[in-house]
Amino acid sequence: MAGTDRFPRVPGRTRSPELRYGNRPTMKDVAARAGVGLKTVSRVVNGEPGVTVETERRVQEAIDSLGFRRNDSARVLRKGRTASIGLVLEDLADPFYGPLSRAVEEVARAHGALLINGSSAEDPEREQELALALCARRVDGLIVIPAGDDHRYLEPEIKAGVATVFVDRPAGRIDADAVLSDSFGGSRAGVAHLIAHGHRRIGFIGDQPRIHTATERLRGYRTAMEDAELPVAPSWVALGSTAPEAVRDAVVDMVAGPEPVTALFAGNNRVTVTALRALADHQQRIALVGFDDLELADLLHITVIAQDAAALGRTAAERLFRRLDGIDDRPAQVTLKTTLIPRGSGEIPPGTIH
Amino acid sequence: MAGTDRFPRVPGRTRSPELRYGNRPTMKDVAARAGVGLKTVSRVVNGEPGVTVETERRVQEAIDSLGFRRNDSARVLRKGRTASIGLVLEDLADPFYGPLSRAVEEVARAHGALLINGSSAEDPEREQELALALCARRVDGLIVIPAGDDHRYLEPEIKAGVATVFVDRPAGRIDADAVLSDSFGGSRAGVAHLIAHGHRRIGFIGDQPRIHTATERLRGYRTAMEDAELPVAPSWVALGSTAPEAVRDAVVDMVAGPEPVTALFAGNNRVTVTALRALADHQQRIALVGFDDLELADLLHITVIAQDAAALGRTAAERLFRRLDGIDDRPAQVTLKTTLIPRGSGEIPPGTIH
DNA sequence: CGTGCCCCTGACAACGTTGTCCAGGCCCTA
DNA sequence: TAGGGCCTGGACAACGTTGTCAGGGGCACG
Known about the structure:
2 copies of one chain form a homodimer.
Chain A: H1 27-34, H2 38-45, H3 53-66, H4 72-79, E1 84-89, H5 97-110, E2 114-119, H6 124-136, E3 141-144, H7 155-159, E4 163-167, E5 177-181, H8 183-196, E6 202-205, H9 212-227, E7 237-238, H10 244-256, E8 263-266, H11 269-281, E9 287-291, H12 297-300, E10 303-306, H13 309-324, E11 333-336, E12 339-341
Parallel strand pairs in A: 1-2, 1-3, 3-4, 4-5, 5-11, 6-7, 6-8, 8-9, 9-10
Antiparallel strand pairs in A: 10-12
The structure holds a DNA duplex.
């Protein structure tokens, strides 16, 4: 009697007035209804052996009629594994991260795990806040696209067993797995491509030097120029904000400056897009190669250095689950090759300037 | 004694050999270390009042030295709220959903909630599986972009108090909140725009009729044609697969058929992209208006019916949290206006066909 | 100096599940 | 027929946290 009822479980105590899970049936309720023990219900729910067909039928019936659904929070607490992984992105809305998170999700799904994610919006503080919130949820693993350059705050977590893999940019100040694109090699090849098409004065527009990929790409640019024994005028390099206005100004300066560039290398997809718009607005048609592919780049004939975002995500997730499966390699960096895709904009010869 | 140690808590029993959370310190450990009671630690961790500065300092010290982090799974079990919401997308990699999920995330963040998400890949079964897995996690609310057309499986969940909002497409066979774009009005306006520019033979390529937005957009097309008293030849309408090959074939058929169309209305962004590629390949330049905006549409001069993906996500999330805050309106459908953005492709007059 | 009040602290139960262990019943064999 | 083994089912504790409640100590006031 009183005790199989849902309300009140215990005479007059303890139950707080707040809404719980809308007051859902528990295994206890199912057990009472089916006239079996608690553990038997658990067995049926989890498909464990050791239950007669007849008992199973009765339990199943009770489950259906009550609309019972196992409470995974309780399960997680008991089992110690959450079967979920966290993904800290830089910006969910950036088209580059769509395929990446999709790939992570596919791998997670294949391992029966859910994906919890959020954006850092390029803010290191927010990255930390988010990553730690995910750890508090006890995600089994963490995939992080770094916004900041100091990840020591994750050290206790990693030590406590949270498998962690960094993607797109390496971890800062800690030794951890990272899956990267070959920013240096990609830029170098892209700039060499422009040089091979006759360009001597080539501009570079990139992200803040705080960001690892940005400096790597700049380094690729400089190396390619050096390889060809070409000088680099300071006015040809713009780093810093990738906000549209800033990039727009940079483009205009480089094209109209005293030593006008005949070609441009754009350090990431946002820069490429803005540069294209600026050039179109000013009716300039100079050579352009961009890092990162774009959805409609083929129709716009944009030559790009393509990274395989899906492969980045997949590789990172696979590495993560390998760790979760107990394989315990030393932390390592994996670098994925980039591909130069010539589509026209990178093959425009110099001297077509108006 | 024995009991404040982490291993073994209880002489020889119960602790299973599997990995738990990498054996993290608990409040109990912190309490032991600080020489205070369990509840006092809880107070400090949660910033509750009623703790002396001195005690707080001691506890904080113990927390830092042990690297304690509150276990939110346990908290969730106890409190009954998970402070997380689930988002079931159709495809994370589709650029349309990037801004949408970003907007949802922003609202969630503002309410202190985390976002758990996954893609249904347009598969109704997978949508259900995912949605129910999220419910088992006891997410407080659910935002669903439907892949299927029967959502009765969510009835017990909604009844049990899971706030649920559908986005982009209405729920099937249940009465629930939905936030939609005005597919009908948008298409109608887009097709009317083509008609206003002199077109009489206009093709429509859309998604499977199973999908609500697809039929609404088709209805908009038909209505616009009727409004102008124009006939619609069966060969001008292609529904079904939006796989690239199918769309490509449809475009070719319409352009080269016995009654060639002079303009095309594309039912969604994927169709628009493929149609553009097909037209470019065949060096055809006919008028085109597409439903959904695209990243580089301005540079390609594509006229589109733009939906505000971010507004869809934001509106849905806000509605969700209103429900979670206890406001209990009747389920309702909200429709957001679309915008026609003329950029060139929709203003090409007929007769430019080669 | 005594009484009463308030502030701080801690013991305890409960959240819903799963792992462990034990009891009882059945069947099979000697 | 008795004994042993196997199969099924259930009681119980534990996961780590928070809400409730009660006790103890200090301070102010009469």
